[in-house]
Amino acid sequence: MSSSDSLDTGLALGDSRAIDDCWNRIGIHGDKSCPLLADHIHCRNCSVYSAAATRLLDRYALQQEDLHGIAPAQAQADVVTRSLLMFRLGEEWLGIATRCLVEVTPMQPIHSLPHQRSRALLGVANVRGALVACLSLVELLGLDSTGSSSSGARVMPRMLIIAAQDGPVVVPVDEVDGIHAIDERTLKAASTSGTQASARYTQGVLQFKGRSLRWLDEAQLLSAVTRSLT
């Protein structure tokens, strides 16, 4: 299913009251009168579309949790899931709790700042007219910045807007897989496996979709983000 199909399906399930599906009215699937089309070519490149996609993916995960409730109560009584956003930096896949995620946006130019005190601070990016601090997760997490990994399909680098203590910050990532509901038992097993001991700001390592995924400790990571900005 394409991202466009996913959005249309989500709206058909009742999200249209909360989300303005402008792509169906004035965008690529409508009369094409949207003034932003000249810059973005297609609605999927627009931050409005990306924001709607993120909200719908999160809702879809929650809807799947509701559907599980239809199963026999005995089998489902102890099943609790946590919603994680999966993304890639170089060759490494990571997951972070969606509760600290504000939005996923297309890449924006990063403007460097003179006399920067933090190696992790890349500069600032313009997010819908507001300048937002831009940080390198590669630097914060101590990752190898030279690696690169993809399935061979065309991927689109993105920026994650994260809710830090003193306001939002943006972090560039190489690829976003989406939002997934993970069984709490799987996360508990990953956090007690001991494989994360040497990994910075990491709660555990789990296998997901054939990948080794680092589950980030958002509290420690957001604390590091705050320190990088002071």
Q: Topology of this protein?
A:
Layout: H1 3-12, H2 22-25, H3 37-40, H4 47-68, H5 73-76, E1 81-89, E2 92-97, E3 101-106, E4 110-111, E5 121-127, E6 130-135, H6 137-141, E7 158-164, E8 167-173, E9 175-183, H7 184-191, E10 202-208, E11 211-216, H8 218-228
Parallel strand pairs: 2-11
Antiparallel strand pairs: 1-2, 1-9, 3-7, 4-5, 5-6, 7-8, 10-11
What can be said about this structure in brief?
The chain has 230 residues and is an alpha+beta fold. The chain is built from 8 helices and 11 strands.
Describe the overall structure:
By secondary structure, the protein is of the alpha+beta class. It has two domains: about 80 residues, no CATH class; about 150 residues, Beta Barrel (OB fold (Dihydrolipoamide Acetyltransferase, E2P)). Helices cover about 30% and strands about 30% of the residues. The chain has a five-stranded mixed β-sheet with strand order 9-1-2-11-10. The chain has a three-stranded antiparallel β-sheet with strand order 3-7-8. The protein has a three-stranded antiparallel β-sheet with strand order 4-5-6. α1 crosses α4. The N terminus is likely disordered.
User: In CATH, what is the homologous superfamily of the largest domain?
Assistant: CheA-289, Domain 4
Strand content: 25-35%
- Here the CATH topology of the largest domain equals OB fold (Dihydrolipoamide Acetyltransferase, E2P)
User: Could you report the average pLDDT, rounded to the nearest whole number?
Assistant: 77
Shape category: globular
CATH architecture of the largest domain: Beta Barrel
Order of helices and strands: HHHHHEEEEEEHEEEHEEH
Major sheet description: 5 strands, mixed
Instruction: Find the count of extended strands (DSSP E, 2+ residues).
Output: 11
Number of domains: 2
What's the CATH C level of the largest domain?
A: Mainly Beta
Our Rg estimate from Cα atoms comes to 19 Å
Strand order of the largest sheet: 9-1-2-11-10
| End-to-end Cα distance | 43 Å
Low-pLDDT residue intervals, each spanning 5 or more residues = 1-17, 60-68
Helix content: 25-40%
- The structure class reads alpha+beta
Tally of helical segments:
8
